Amino acid sequence: DEAKYLNYIGEIELHQPIKVKDENGKVIKTTVGRIIFNEILPPEIPFKNTIFESNSLEKLIEEMFTKCGYEKTVEFLDACKELGFYYATVSGITIGIDDLIVPKEKDKLISEAKAEVEKVEKNYRKGIISEGEKYNRKIDIWTSVSNELMEIVMNKIKNDVNTKPFRINPIYLMVSSGARGNKSQVAQLAGMRGLMVRPTKKFTGGIGEIIETPVISNFKEGLSVFEYFISVHGGRKGLVDTALKTSEAGYLSRRLVDVAHSVIVTQYDCGTLEGIYASPLVEGDEEIIPLKERIIGRVALDDVVNILGEVIVKSGEVIDEEKADMIIKAKEEGLLLTNKIKIRSVLTCRAEKGVCAKCYGWDLSRKKLVNIGEAVGIVAAQSIGEPGTQLTLRTFHTGGTASRGVGPSSLTSKSDGIIKYLEDLKVVKNKEGKNIVCQREGGIIIVDDRDREVERYTLRVGSIIEFENGERVKKGDTIAKWDPYSIPVVVDKGGVVKYKDIEVGKTVKEEVDTIAKRRNLIVIPHKEEMDPQIVLYDENGKIVGSYHIPIGAHIIVNEGDKVSPGDIIAKTPRTVGRIQDITGGLPRVSDLFEARSPKNPAILSEIEGIVHVKMEKGMRKVVVENEETNEVREYIIPYGKTIVVSEGDKVLPGTELTDGFKSLNDILRIQGEKKVMEYLLNEIQKVYRIEGVKINDKHIEVIIRQMLSRVRVEDPGDTYLLEGEEINRYEIQKINESLPKGKKPATFKPLVLGITKVALTCESFISAASFQETMRVLTDAAVLGAEDYLEGLKENVILGRLIPAGTGIFEKKEEKVEEYQYI
């Protein structure tokens, strides 16, 4: 109270550090503001003596909800709002130009960067690197300078504190509390504006999409005319994108609602014995979604048992925070060896209409098992659609500044252990005696002293491994290094180079670099009979090995050169880090939900076996041979595709033989439904997580369930169905069950359909007609004499009836009971 009084008469400020005694008589260092905030907290919550940033308030409310329950949380939120409005009114926060502090280190950083760029230019003129590499390196240099400056500026304003009267920098207050603005905007005001995006029609991430001369000035110093022009150029793109993409995201939301509106929780337990495996989602070496996030609020399918035989979670129990932490702890202590937990999921739910509560798990708004009658389909559609609108708008806030991920160029160990090469890793020793990965990607693992796997990494071609197989590594050691700017072709044998099918004008183009004064051979798309290769001969003129050179690669050895194992003979420049704009993301999400086949699909192996690469009659073939079953599959590889496996490799069903995206239908055909579910879920999550948006798995699962809800009749048997008819899975199971004994049931195979197609072919013609192609849907329904049983939400809303969700679901059930009574 004394502190509050002193603040009231103006002796001390709200944010000024003071020392007071807490209720136990202990002296603590805090501020008046924190004392006032803590007064509105319920007694169950201890004194919070920290800075409250945007995320910490979220955590506090979550803690309160768990400890104090519903009513006290509501009271606190109300008090919080009152307090916020009062202090926002009296705060008088303003921005003055002096609040923007341009760091003194800026000039030094800029001149260092300019020197580096000059070095890159020199290397380009000497002909050491290609134009693409020059462009990518320049952009990486400027990106890292911008990021470094951003951190310095943030630290400067964080430590900019006025002593009398005590004031914290208002810009820091706004950004750190999450009220307005973000780091990159502050960096543009006081650091440097950075690289700008050039508006292009197509978004490929190729050369020239980012303007390579950065805007070095910031808004406080003011821009030169040239910089202003580039800057406006980027700003325009931001605004145009926003307008175009908002409608795109809105349309995605609409399709999602239409496909999932009829998914309602209709029963408590469907009694299924199936489930899916939840495991952490890993992209490269980064864990995008940890295991805890994927299992919390889900029902365990089997008992989760540690190696001592103790049950952590029983089958059929909900995994809450406490149990999830126990599982993670058991994993860290080595008592739980698996990385996969089998959980119930709507993907395997057997409820005929809608889904069951146990397969769905927690209602995330209450952290309790979902109620019967909850419209989980609509919730799922909104959870996925809403961030879509946010993601699109994100380009606008940074005003077209290019944020671009710099690819890592080395791999560091995260723990102590022993390194082990996996069998798919092919290495050769190069001239320096280091192991270099050749031909294709391979894996290494790090194990602890009890031979348990701690980490697993995939190394790309051309990586130089610093440790031998079986050597010890310490935490923080660099395990491997690679060139992030290009994909090399590495030879595994030594010999003399001879070109095969490398002819200027036919398979390669010659670029004479006037600045670098040298000629470059670049492989171009060519006729199918020709296959550009580099063949190696030994002294006796015998062929030692031949290497296929992919399209777009720069050949860096000349005919007659001598090469030794581990040398690089060609490299394809990487278009480093696409511009991280949702322009890449939204279309990708929409392609996945629409189950579109990719423009450049990868060819997948259908069986397990050993690979043989052959060349017959001018055709490139990959033959997969299984020695145990004597099964052989041949794949003709079209030109323009890069083969990513090599002679003698072991492949599994579904392994990619060429580059490109996997096609959903291929995965379904070769690996089955479970794999399609897993692939869709993980791919959609990746797009959103890269953008920093968190969506719970179960929402995406609800939509995927709808995408896989149809089957195609293969053999109608003794039913009235037709061959090739597409029908709901539960419908056909019902028909089969109703057949008299001795009759032959219909057989079917699963389909994966896009959301638009599912929405148009749903049971309710009223719902389908209100979505798209009204005339066609109604005509079809009239011709077929279709009936609508009004089971979804949409058709009931259209007819003005009570919807079968929430309390309406029980009325629906009573209605059915009454009907039977009359019969």
Description:
The protein is α+β, with helices and mostly antiparallel strands and 823 residues long. Among the domains are: 2-91, no CATH class; 265-374, no CATH class; 410-482, OB fold (Dihydrolipoamide Acetyltransferase, E2P) (Beta Barrel), CATH 2.40.50; 703-822, DNA polymerase, domain 1. Helix content is 36%, strand content 19%. The protein is built from 23 helices and 39 strands. A 5-stranded antiparallel sheet has the order 15-23-21-18-17, with no helix packed on it. A 5-stranded antiparallel sheet has the order 24-32-30-27-26, with no helix packed on it. Helix 3 (54-68) runs antiparallel to helix 4, helix 9 (225-260) packs antiparallel against helix 13 and helix 16 packs across helix 17 (697-707). It is globular, with a radius of gyration of 31 Å. The N and C termini lie far apart (76 Å).
